[in-house]
């Protein structure tokens, strides 16, 4: 994926409709410490506050990623940019059927803290969310 930073903006839009960019100095030390421990080679960090949680967007080995933390430092979600052909085939079929003629602009794999996997495809200005098998779950508008 060539547009890694825009990918993160799109991926996070569905999760952060009410988010605001914040300076890293306003992020709790527990959150920043855990992030640095988990991803010491991360580059291009950008922080947002969304619904009381802290989200950091960054690149790791050229891959666009984002993490969401509670203020106490608990990691709740990891997002990773993927190629559109890495979406489950069932999700791709759903998009072809329900968004005829529309292209998937970006895609990501979302891993919740408890291990639940979701996929997100940005299509026609909307984030279309699927479960791990590719079953449609919901649409989140930008």
How large is the radius of gyration?
15 Å
Oligomer: single chain
Which CATH class applies here?
A: Alpha Beta
Give me the side-by-side strand order of the main sheet. 1-2-3-4-5-6-7-8-9
Calculate the mean pLDDT score and round it.
89
Summarize the structure.
The chain is α+β, with helices and mostly antiparallel strands and 142 residues long.
Task: Give a structural overview.
It is a single chain. With 142 residues, the protein is an alpha+beta fold. It has a single domain (4-141), classed as Nuclear Transport Factor 2, Chain: A. It has helices at 4-15, 29-38, 89-98; strands spanning 20-22, 43-50, 53-60, 63-69, 75-82, 104-112, 117-123, 126-131, 136-141. The protein has a nine-stranded antiparallel β-sheet with strand order 1-2-3-4-5-6-7-8-9, sandwiched between helices. A hairpin with a 2-residue loop joins strand 2 (43-50) and strand 3. The chain is elongated and about 45 Å long. The model is unreliable at 1-17 (pLDDT under 50).
What is the topological layout?
Layout: H1 4-15, E1 20-22, H2 29-38, E2 43-50, E3 53-60, E4 63-69, E5 75-82, H3 89-98, E6 104-112, E7 117-123, E8 126-131, E9 136-141
Keywords:
142 residues; alpha+beta; Nuclear Transport Factor 2, Chain: A; nine-stranded antiparallel beta sheet; 9 strands; elongated; disordered N terminus
